[in-house]
Sequence to fold (152 residues):
Amino acid sequence: MTVPSPEASSGAPGPAGAQGGAPPAVERFAGEPPSPWEDRFGFSRVSRAAGLVVVGGTTSVDQNGVVLGATPYDQAVEVLRKIEHQLSRAGASLAAVLQTRVYVTDISRSEEVGRAHGEVFGEIHPCMTMVEVSGLIDPRMMVEIEAVALAP
Fold:
C-alpha cells in the first residue's frame, strides 16, 4: 500500500529545504510472513521512501510464534535470510544495504552473530552497529537486526 508521509496528513512542513509540492509517497509492506506482533503493535516490516528501503527489527520468529535457531549464529542466519527476502519485495538486494543495526542479548556471543553477518555482507561492507540489549520481546530471541538499503 502507498500512503502519504506523516507531514501530508498533519499539515506540518516537510523536511528542511523542501520546496513545497506533494510530499513523498511512502510504501509500506507487511512482513511475508507477518510477525505475530505487526497488527497488534501497528507496524510494517518494510518501508520504501525517498530512495531508501528500511527493514524494521527482524527476528527469527515464524508466523506461528516459533523462534527458529538454537544459537545466536543460527538465529542471525535466519534473520539475514528473512531480511534478504523482505528487501527483494521492495525491489532492493543485499548488495544495496548501507547499514545494519544488530541487537543481541549476550554480547559475549557477538562473534557468532558477527560471523553470520560476515558470511552475508563480507564483500558488501555496510555500516554496522551491534549492541547488547537487556532482552527482546520473546525471551527465546537472542538476535534482532534492522537494515537500511538504497531503493532501486
